[in-house]
Amino acid sequence: MKTAGRIHPVYAEMERTVFDRMSALAREHGAINLGQGFPDGPPPPALIEAASRALHEKSNQYPPGAGLIELREAICGYYARRQGLELAPEQVTVTSGATEALAAAIFAFVKPGDEVILFQPAYDAYAPLVRRAGGIAISIPLSPPHFRYPAEALDAALQERSTLLARSGLPDPAPVKPRVLMLNDPLNPAGTVASHAELAMIAKACVEHDLIAICDEVWEDVRFDGVPHRSLMSFPGMAERTVKIGSAGKIFGLTGWKVGWMIAAGHLATAISRAHQFLTYATAVPLQWAVAEGLSLPDAVLDEQRNGWAEARARLKAGLTQAGFVVLPNAATWFLTVDLVASGIALSDREFSERTVIEAGVASVPVAALYQGEEAPEHLVRFCFTKPTEVLDEAVARLARFRETLTG
Ligand code: PMP
Ligand code: GLN
Q1: Which contiguous run of DSSP H or E holds residue 94?
Q2: Which of the listed residues 250, 287, 337, 384 should we mutate to test ligand 1's pocket, taking the one with most ligand atoms within 8 A of CB?
Q3: How far apart are CA 131 and CA 126, in angstroms?
């Protein structure tokens, strides 16, 4: 069969994700995988026990499409306790990972021709999903090393549309203006966190321009700055226009479980739940029971896990710094970013990542892969630190030797 022109253009040109590619290269070359983000340590035993108990004792048949009521209640309890949010289970839809939640929210709210504001760098699913829905991604680049949210650029992205519209001179021009804004806070890959003032500025823009905010907060509980996470949803006027997305994969370090959720109010909640019913309909039920138990555990369990990640983070940062790499400041996620130029390395991020996985035996992620278009910096490489001490030490030793071969 001739397939030219038969495949949707979004998929016709698409490569495998950078995460999948780097993990495959790591396997092929026997490299230490600090690329794709996942922890190597043991998961909290209580969740493994809860999942195996559920397999034996609970139903293994379809759960309600929106998720077990026990899990939806546990999600509400969790956010009441940790973020002071007042939510009802009817607002929550359980999804197969945050990735499905992103797809459902985008499919629910982005119509052909709608503009969607994205900040870059961004999780690589955002722009293709927007395009698949027929939307137009308007990207606002965030600049390293601090990745602050530029109020002027956001304002311009919003204003320019109306100016263009006014200038179009058409008697009855189709309304071309952003309808949706996507925010990822804390931000993968940078590991930075939006300040209160930045969130307030973004919330104000959403209210003034009547935008729906799709807020990907999967890293909300992987913060090392001691500051409690605050959701965009909690800002004035935002409860009615925000979809808040979370993931048990990140909270418990169980990325392969693919249990996530999305939360919204009123008609928005109904719409995303409808989108979900024809993406997956429902999510693996034993894992839903286990996540419900996990979210109800004492905070000390999560604190212990995070303390372990914090130690790994400090170890990788110290090791890389000692080996002459310059690590950018950040406060969250499982990732540290190295500035190649500041580290005296004259390779682009892609060259560095491709060469280190083969020549040094360490996989990483080139940050440019998480930008669309021309705006990508080419001097930043992301390393995942949630690995055992000896793995991190060996990775640093290999990277140090590789750096010496480059810098003499
Ligand atoms: N959003 C962001 C910002 C992420 O970093 C990730 C995973 N790393 C996801 C969404 C996807 O989460 P899940 O595995 O739960 O689908
Ligand atoms: N987002 C994860 C990361 O940043 C990977 C997710 C995936 O591979 N789909 O590494």
Answers
A1: strand 92-95
A2: 250
A3: 9
Residue tagged 């080419």 (tokens): 378
Q: Which atom of ligand 1 is the closest one to the Cα of 96?
A: 16
- The per-residue pLDDT string of the chain (408 residues; one tens digit each, 9 = 90 and over) reads 888 889 999 999 898 999 999 999 999 999 999 999 999 988 899 999 999 999 999 999 999 999 999 999 999 999 999 999 999 999 999 999 999 999 999 999 999 989 999 999 999 999 999 999 999 999 999 999 999 999 999 999 998 666 666 666 666 656 567 999 999 999 999 999 999 999 999 999 999 999 999 999 999 999 999 999 999 999 999 999 999 999 999 999 999 999 999 999 999 999 999 999 999 999 999 999 999 999 999 999 999 999 999 999 999 999 999 999 999 999 999 999 999 999 999 999 999 999 999 999 999 999 999 998 878 999 999 999 999 999 999 999 999 999 999 987
**Residue 188 CB less than 6 A away from ligand 2:** yes
CA distance 100 to 399: 35
Q: Any idea which ligand is nearest the CA of 126? A: 1
d(CA 346, CA 407): 9
Is 334 touching ligand 2 by the criterion CB < 6 Å?
no
Residue of 20, 40, 96, 123 with the most ligand 2 atoms within 8 Å of its CB, for mutation: 123
Measured CA to CA, the distance from residue 285 to residue 324 in angstroms comes to 48
CB atoms under 10 Å from CB of 32, counted, come to: 23
Q: Quote the pTM value.
A: 0.96
Domains of the chain plus CATH, in order, are 9-43+300-407 (3.90.1150.10), 45-297 (3.40.640.10)
DSSP secondary structure code for residue 329 in this structure: P
State whether the beta carbon of 383 lies less than 6 angstroms from ligand 2: no
Q: How far, in Å, is the centroid of ligand 2 from the Cα of 40? A: 14
